[in-house]
Amino acid sequence: xxxxxPYLQVAIETAREAGALLLREFDRPQQIGYKGEVDIVTEADxxxxxxxxxxxxxxxxxxxxxxxxxGGQESDSEYRWYVDPLDGTTNFAHGYPCFxxxxxxxxxxxxxxxxxVGIVFNPVNGExxxxxxxxxxxxNQKKIRVSAVPRLSASLLSTGFPVQKRTQNPNIHYYWxxxxxxxxxxxxxxxxxxxxxxxCGRFDGFWEFGLKxxxxxAGVLIVREAGxxxxxxxxxxxxxxxxxxxxxxxxxxxxxxxxAADIAARAGELPG
Length: 272
Fold this sequence. Notes:
The chain has 272 residues and is an alpha+beta fold.
């Protein structure tokens, strides 16, 4: 008899419910607000988050919930849910169909924790990425694996750019170098989906700066369980909320680290 992880089961049900809500909202005129000069938030973000938080509270009332729009709850529990109710808000607001729901569960403190469960659901095409620590990664219940591309020069990469403090972010320099040294770099506007792309072999590597824990908790676990790596530029295991994230199929990881180090050296800064 198959034993279903209760955290995974609830997270899947929750992500599907939130995803259905997002699809209903997607075809309607958007009510857009701003958290900063260009950082968009929609009513769909808030409604999706309310749906997710309500369901998690119902099933796990003592757990901490860290949600992007501030609707979570604090507790002294060792279990922390990281919720991005709509990763790809700018895409969503402009009618570009590249967005998802991302839900991750970690055990431990906010500073030091183990990722236990990760769910990323793309409601547009119905793709459900899942992972449980030590049990592998799956796309619609079929096991996935990172690519076998052995060299950066033969790779396809992805990245993202911030909506806050954009002029202070160094990523345009990294974008140029990585584009010149690979088959190309894609920028789709959803870090969670980019990480899942690495996990299932669509991308061979991904990097980005300044991501929040709710952006990465699910995707990083999915990458690792698919056989990939997720570190900072110095090669240390990625920690939620870290300054930079480098994820890959592991085969091109050292090359990507070296490129990042070369760029940082030219800019007169140290990685990390």
